[in-house]
What does this fold into?
Amino acid sequence: MSEPRPAPVADATHERVPAVLVVDDEADLRELLSLTLGRLGLDVDTADSLGSARDLLARRRYALCLADMRLPDGTGLELVQQVAARGDTPIAVITAYGSAENAVAALKAGAFDYLAKPVDLDQLRLLVRSALARPPAGGAQPPTQTRAIDRLRGEAPAMRQLRTMIERLAHSMAPVAIYGESGSGKELVARAIHDSSARRLLPFVAVNCGAIPETLMEAEFFGYRKGAFTGAERDRDGFFHAAVGGTLFLDEVAELPLPMQVKLLRAIQERRVRKVGSTSEDPVDVRILSATHQDLAKLVAAGRFRQDLFYRLNVIELHLPSLRERSEDIGMLAEGILDRLALRGGEERASLSREALQELQGYPFPGNVRELENVLERGVALAGGRELTPADLMLPAVEAPDDADAAISGQAAAASTEPAEDAAATTPSADGVPTDLASYLDAIESEALLAALRKTGGNRTAAAQLLGITFRQLRYRMQRLGLK
It folds into this structure.
């Protein structure tokens, strides 16, 4: 095995050339990587063991470190942990083909990215460009426009921790799965990660996975060639092509049908996509962020989401707090919303009375920040630019806080024991068997729906989430049962 190159003498001219450290015990691969990186204008040092790599890292600062996962005296994962702890050098790992577990483990440990053997030189060049474009750790980022992270306002501990996590995640290529209730700001968080990263000047493409018909998904994600199907009158790029160099955000990823999950997994693993009707694949350099209000792990257990795709997307979990978990931020958020409403409408800025603020802070907001914005916009329209009172807010009445499931099951139990107007239709017979099963079940279902609606202050979207059904299913059931 070749000896590691000694660190060159530092001088002003030399240090302007970015240096890369390649750590691999295969001489042929070290040579290939050195030649490729050298043609990119980089200065390359090589090491054939973990110990040699540590010596070089102690003597010189590198713009990037590439390390094989298997080394004669240790593992690449050990080097990842050491380099990531220092925080001044992005490190990427080289894994054996198909070793998804190793790649995910490295990303979780702090690796910037990974390459699979045999190394694709196009992907290597993309990785190097991404690494060199990273802003220095702790350094100021060039101003472009108002960053999304600046819109994540709030001083609650959960929000301060969220902003810190976003800044950390921005310096990685690791996929992030964002979890949060509807209206909690999942897309805003995804944009904040993108805006804080080296990819901020390149596209951010947001895709609502639940809004695309299944028959069009492959064409929308991967694009198509002219003549690939009826109506394909020209070549068209897909979401992956549109996001090249930037970030692809998969919103409501749990809505993807299983056949599309297979195709998406392959695109993420191979970093290549094939347009519908094409015989060749295109390399795509995108960072994948995803979001859902559902529990993906439970969907995997239920067979509704592929476990291998879950592991690929769920490398890092980010959980967003609901608004009711940070009620101390409601005043600050409300003031910011009122500022935006006044600016947008060109009218005098409305204010909140003390009583109105207390009303807002006591309301559970099942629709989170999005619902707060709707409430204030309605209030401003009613108040006509003056001070908003509780009457202007028109908040639904809410029950005293208790366990939602207990409330629903309690109402359902009451429906099965309390006599209704038509006792023959809803009351069980002496032996415990209902005399009219359909009416009996309808009564239980009605009480469960009404209990959920009371719990959410009449908010049907939140009630559907509470019951574990879709909004459309809730509306259908209410219509069928004659509920208003």
